[in-house]
Specification:
single chain, alpha/beta, 7-stranded mixed β-sheet, 6-stranded parallel β-sheet, 9 helices, 18 strands, globular
């Protein structure tokens, strides 16, 4: 079957390890389900995998891709939850939690096999392309907002780095849930797009906001950390799920954190129940993922280059 896979690890030039070509079809195994992939979406996790983060040389070649929607062996339209091992379903009960492609072949292929427990019905309201955007970036944003930030309708939220997959999802989901969303981006066009998607205002990184916020959604890391901390109300919550600009900010702002009793919460992906809720929320409220571009699988390299260069707003989707 045709697939996009990591053939080599290169920390400095990750795309040099990306290859497109034939790979063996997945083998049937007890408790697992094979899905014919219709659409899959890119995540920064795929780039990190090519750099060797969470993926070792001993596991190569590894088909990349965490997210997918497709048709299962019984003809049902389904969405894949990409966290493997947290439940004990389909894998050993002692197996640690991993994301698809860290130990098992991924979704950038004509077929993928996952534990049957990891397959959810796709709402008829969502296309395959839309559904394929949800299990990683959009699920991460959903958990950050509604589980870990604990915000309620009417609360204010700052989303750093509009344009990235998680940040874009947080803007759309937050606005749909009645939150007062502010956003930042270095790019003027991305700031304008954030407002179109429901943000009350969009600002340059580090710019003084019109008011402090109840929560900050942080995926940028070092470059925006100080601004994130300074933007919170006393008792506010900073939720972080990534650090694309680096993990070591110049100033940790510890004095401000303890004096204002701020909360800093780490957040990673989300559970199957949260993905079910997210799918239902999107179907019921008419919320749709923001898609930057749709490419056939044989043009996956273009999608990777687009994501690596930061020249996108929303998700890149590959179709099979």
């Amino acid at each position: 079957m045709f697939a996009a896979y990591a053939a080599r690890i290169d920390r400095d030039q990750p795309l040099s390890g990306l290859e497109l070509g034939e790979r063996p079809e997945p083998e049937a195994r007890s408790g697992w389900t094979t899905v014919n992939v219709k659409a899959a979406s890119l995540n920064h996790h795929d780039l990190w995998s090519l750099r060797g983060v969470g993926l070792g040389e001993e596991s190569l070649p590894m088909i990349l891709g965490c997210d997918a929607a497709g048709v299962d062996e019984d003809g049902n339209e389904v969405v894949i939850h990409s966290v493997i091992g947290q439940s004990g379903h389909g894998v050993g009960p002692e197996e640690p939690r991993t994301i698809l492609t860290e130990r098992y072949q991924g979704t950038f292929a004509e077929k993928v096999t996952v534990p049957s427990w990891n397959v959810l019905p796709k709402p008829k309201e969502l296309s395959f392309e839309e559904a394929a955007c949800l299990p990683t970036a959009w699920l991460t944003a959903y958990r950050m907002l509604f589980t870990n930030a604990g915000v309620r309708p009417g609360d204010s939220v700052l989303v750093q780095g509009a344009g990235g997959g998680v940040a874009t999802a947080a803007i759309v989901l937050g606005a749909a849930a009645g939150l007062r969303v502010l956003a930042t981006s270095r790019d003027e066009a991305k700031r304008a797009r954030a407002v179109e998607l429901g943000a009350e205002g969009a600002y340059e990184p580090g710019e003084r906001l019109p008011r402090r916020v109840d929560a900050v959604i942080e995926t940028v890391g070092a470059a925006t950390w100080s601004h994130s901390v300074k933007s919170l109300k006393p008792g506010g919550t900073l939720v972080i799920s990534g650090a694309t600009s680096g993990p070591n900010p110049k100033a940790a702002e510890l004095n401000r954190i303890f004096f204002l009793e701020l909360k800093v919460v780490g957040s990673t992906m989300g559970g199957k129940d949260e993905l079910e809720d997210l799918l239902s929320f999107c179907a019921a409220r008419g919320v749709r993922p923001v898609i930057d571009s749709v490419l056939p699988l044989d043009r996956a390299r273009e999608g990777f280059e687009k994501m690596a260069g930061g020249d996108l707003f929303g998700k890149v989707v590959l179709t099979v």
